[in-house]
Amino acid sequence: HKDLLDVTYLSDEEILFILDNAKRFQEVNLRAVKKVPTLKGKTVTLFFSEPSTRTKLSFDTAAKRLSADTFALGKSGSSVQKGESLKDTALTLQAMHPDIIVIRDSSSGAAQFLAERLNCSVVNAGDGWHAHPTQALLDAFSLREAWNGEFAGKTLLILGDINHSRVARSNIHWMTRFGINVRICSPKTLLPRYLDNFPVEIYSDLNKAVQGADAVMCLRLQLERQAAGLLPDLGDYSRRYCLTRRHLSEAKPNAKILHPGPMNRGLEISSEIADCADSLVLNQVSAGVATRMAVLYLYGTRNDDMTLNPQVGE
Ligand code: CP
């Protein structure tokens, strides 16, 4: 494929190829000189019309560590503020001949809309409620490291605002394909309809959902995507769904904790859990740079025969 729109478009082999390359790039990120010439002469444009800290900075860092030139455009400070459409903005960016456009937008389907209209590669950095493929890939990388390469037979609980979560949707796709037993726990009002199509167990009681889990992925309560009249009572939500040490005592010993960030501490995850020794939250951030280097390598070189990057070395 020319574009990365979601993990659904990646074969198992392509996912493992990205994870294997990310492992090699992780070693580059630990070197004194954190740069390889892989994408020298290529241009990566970052077009983020929704706020981002982790995804935007890690794509920028990843591209620069591959020696690509990067340019960033946001809603604020660009002609989007004067009413220029997504399509006209993207065509304008493409007329400057980038090799890859990385896009984040609040509309589900925005990345696909552009991918169908642009010649360059489009990488989805989060589109509305729909998909966040590189978050799912970096989560796969983090879990692969923590579980010594094993996915099949593990039990992972995804907790919180599933309905508005592009992270949950993309993760459920690859996790169920790779044999992870996925559990979902959220209030009934925050459960999406698409779950009928997936082999996931659904809970509304966190005390039951967490029993025997190998990992818990907490999600942010996405208040900005909820209609004003439908907002949950935050006190009630945190009493029922904020992950604490008491809940975790029911999970497997040393169960891993994930959160894509940004976290609402005390609402969906307690600070003692976010900062505990088994928390992978900051590992996920580091994995984000290595995984996005692997994604940019794959799409920036159109590496169809999937060779590991020879420029990383042993
Ligand atoms: N996880 C994630 O997408 O974080 P940002 O919104 O900060 O990029």
List keywords for this structure.
Asp_carbamoyltransf_Asp/Orn-bd, Rossmann fold, alpha/beta, binds phosphoric acid mono(formamide)ester, Asp/Orn_carbamoylTrfase, 314 residues
Write the layout of secondary structure elements.
Blueprint: H1 12-29, E1 43-48, H2 54-65, E2 69-74, H3 86-94, E3 100-105, H4 110-115, E4 121-127, H5 133-146, E5 155-159, H6 166-177, E6 181-185, E7 200-203, H7 206-209, E8 215-218, H8 234-241, H9 245-248, E9 256-258, H10 271-274, H11 281-301
Parallel strand pairs: 1-2, 1-3, 3-4, 5-6, 5-8, 6-7, 8-9
Helix pairs in contact: 1-5, 1-11, 2-11, 5-6, 5-11
Phosphoric acid mono(formamide)ester binds next to helix 2.
InterPro entries: Asp/Orn_carbamoyltranf_P-bd, Asp/Orn_carbamoylTrfase, Asp/Orn_carbamoylTrfase_sf, Asp_carbamoyltransf, Asp_carbamoyltransf_Asp/Orn-bd
Function: Catalyzes the condensation of carbamoyl phosphate and aspartate to form carbamoyl aspartate and inorganic phosphate, the committed step in the de novo pyrimidine nucleotide biosynthesis pathway.
Binding site for carbamoyl phosphate: 54-55, 104, 132, 135, 261-262
